[in-house]
Amino acid sequence: MAEIELNVLTGQCLNRRINDIEVVRKEVLAWQNFRDNRNAKVNWQFTAEDARIKLSRLCPALEG
Q1: Which of 24, 25, 36, 60 has CA 20 to 30 A from 16's CA?
Q2: What pLDDT shows up at residue 27?
Q3: Cα(24)–Cα(15) distance, rounded to whole angstroms?
Q4: pTM, rounded to two decimals
Q5: Which residues in the chain land under pLDDT 70?
Q6: CA 30 to each of CA 7, 34, 64: distance values in angstroms, whole numbers, following the listed order
Q7: How do residues 31-45 score in pLDDT, each as one tens digit?
């Protein structure tokens, strides 16, 4: 989930060269507030079951 948000941040906010760290902090804070106020959600393109099949090598099934 964090990787998705970082990718969105990069595309929407940090897609240019910013020379001052304080400007970066202000831009990211403004972007974060905007996203939080919109209650932005991830639009999953496949179901959890599909993800288990496609990503099985990353997350082996638990045996109980």
Answers
A1: 36
A2: 92
A3: 11
A4: 0.56
A5: 1, 59-64
A6: 16, 6, 45
A7: 999 888 888 777 778
How far CA 27 is from CA of 32, 44, 55, in Å, comes to: 9, 27, 34
| Measured CA distances, 9 to 23, 45, 59, 60 (Å) | 15, 20, 26, 30
**Residue 31 exposure: Cα atoms within 13 Å on the Cβ side:** 17
- Whole-angstrom CA distances from 54 to 2, 14, 40, 45, 47 are 20, 31, 25, 12, 10
Positive or negative: CA dihedral 28, 42, 36, 58: negative
H/E/C letters for each residue in 14-63? CCCCCCCHHHHHHHHHHHHHHHHHHCCCCCCCCCHHHHHHHCCCCCCCCC
